[in-house]
Design goal:
Elements: H1 15-23, H2 29-33, E1 39-42, H3 49-53, E2 59-75, E3 78-87, E4 90-97, H4 102-105, E5 111-121, E6 124-128, E7 131-134, H5 135-142, E8 145-148, H6 157-170, H7 180-186, H8 191-199, H9 204-231, H10 245-253, H11 260-273, E9 280-285, H12 292-304, E10 308-312, H13 316-333, E11 339-342, H14 348-360, E12 365-368, E13 382-387, H15 395-402, E14 409-414, H16 420-427, E15 431-435, E16 446-451, H17 455-467, E17 471-475, H18 490-500, E18 507-510, H19 516-527, E19 533-536, E20 549-554, H20 562-569, E21 580-585, H21 590-601, H22 605-615, H23 641-653, H24 665-668
Parallel strand pairs: 4-6, 9-14, 9-15, 10-12, 10-13, 11-12, 13-14, 16-21, 17-19, 17-20, 18-19, 20-21
Antiparallel strand pairs: 1-8, 2-3, 2-5, 3-4, 5-6, 5-7
Helix pairs in contact: 8-9, 9-23, 10-12, 11-12, 20-22
The structure holds adenosine-5'-diphosphate and magnesium ion.
Length: 670
Amino acid sequence: MQISDSISVIKGVGEKTAACFYKLGVESVKDLLEYYPATYDSFEEPVCMTEAFQRSGQIISVRGILVGKVFMKKVRNLTITTCKVRDESGAISLTFFNMPYVRNMIKEGQWYVFKGTLLPNGSGFKMEQPGVFNVLEYEKLVQSLQPRYHLTKGISNKTIAKCCRQVLDTLPVINDYLPDNLKAKYGLCSLKEAIWGIHFPTDEDELKRAATRLVFDEFLFFLCRLKIAQESENRENSCPMIPVADCRRLIEGLPFRLTEDQINVWNMIEADMSSDCIMNRLIQGDVGSGKTIIAILGLLMAVANGYQGAMMAPTEVLARQHYESIREITDRYGLPFRPVLLIGSLTAKNKREAKLGIEAGTYNLVIGTHALVQGDVKFDRLGLVVCDEQHKFGVNQRETLMNKGINPHVMVMSATPIPRTLAVVLYGNVQVCVIKTMPSERKPIKNAVVDVTYRPKAYEFILKQVRMGHQAYVICPLVEAGEMENVENAVDYARKLSGIFPEEVRVGLLHGQIKADKKEQVMSAFADRNIDVLVSTTVIEVGINVPNATVMLIENAERFGLAQLHQLRGRVGRGEALSYCIFINGNNKNKDNERLEILKKSNDGFEIAAEDLKLRGPGDLFGIRQSGEMNFRLADVFRDASILMMAKEASENIDITELGDKEKWERLLL
Ligand code: ADP
Ligand code: MG
């Protein structure tokens, strides 16, 4: 078996299973090894009965001997199997529903471990549907953590774990690309240990060691790529510009006054682009703080100076929105923009026309998606590149776009609050500026943290808002059923809501497994008010602006990181009307409530991220994988800040040619 082999070389993986793996994005053996568990199950030492009795209502494991017979009765079409187990200190009864085979599984006088929720039963206790384990088998489980992978219909956790184990057992040596002295210096384990440890850790310590190594690698490779890019960087201002009257005119003509922070940031950008050095600026501002207008001003300055500008957005809907609003102000204020939209869904003819016009300089402003970075897009005189929602792009995409000009100015915008020190590490040679204050007329969003019993009220509230002509988002963590219990999925939820709401309420569905063009269609339909309630996974998170949406309902809010919830919430509260965000805590643990309450108290993304970090103990290793900043798999720039600093130091002292390319690490595994 080779690391680059297709997943179907694994024994037992037929066509059907392979198709399921594809759905999960796992196509090769390497993909499988990098398909890290979402979480881990742990099995605690079994307790004795008296101790168990102290923990009524909790999931526990008890050791007991089966006493007396196993009884079975039928009530209508339900088979109920009952029995009694005890140890020296007490006894409980067990009930199984529709599991008649239990009778042949357990024998009188034998010891077992039973795992389940302990419930009061008259004067005693009982367990319903407990897991039954042979004592030795259970002991083995206690000494390990069991991986739990994200699933999709048709594939079980057991299958994925089995495949992983098979691969790890059959793969020849896993060759490590990190030099030994580096590993020793930072106390990192070997790559082989790390891959084993992330899938099949024996305990928390091993898991932590494995994760640390893999996170370190992710950061290190990222930083090395950045270093290579920077070494070839020319900092001279090759696109000199001067401040222009058009910008002043636009600022004065706007229907609103720029906030003080917006003015400051704009002044900095104006100064940057007219200085001796090329601009590389990161503009951070919370969702809704008004970053777009700053970008437009920058583009206007570039265009008025005779350059072309390019603005890249992560989705077609967002690109289209930017394009429309720029066209609108171009007409209204008589601005020198000659804009064109370049997105994947244009007809071939329109695309060709756009590209020709860009190359000839007929268009001086290009707004688009990553379609902009394709090889055949050539600019005449590119002077400024703007990346909206920077964190959704890879560094490579930004660089490819930059290379389409001769060293153009760069402005990237992000709503992810990263401390300045971290930003410099992550983005390299970048000037960071922040828009802190929100436009003053903005009404704060009303927040509620509730449990699942509140749902009917929430639906009623949504209906009321829809009848007032507004729209609503409903966010579910999962795409479809079958992945995890008690976690809502968008597909079923949309179906359910269509049934609950009267017919005139149009319910839409959006998730990552929908094809790209269909996804764009749904988002446009929502933006155009042809959908009233949009049930979605977090794909909606990216910058879409639908000011008419006034409610956001988030199911299983406990499963999301606070920073992500804050981003999601930023989709509402963008218009005149008062907006509402309802966080449903699906498991009702106090710890989660406490965390979610932070969102009620604060509307400041920086503060929220900091509080979130404080509450996430190191034990929550995989609790939250954060908003996908830089698309790291495991790494989280907040939680893993100390590893990031280690990787930074290592990247400065390392000879990159020694490392090999992460993309090609399969070559390094013999
Ligand atoms: P984001 O920073 O999330 O990209 P946008 O730039 O999309 O936010 O701005 C959100 C909304 O706020 C837009 O409708 C924009 O026109 C409006 N806006 C921007 N600046 C101001 C301001 N100074 N006063 C009032 N409204 C503003
Ligand atoms: Mg934006």
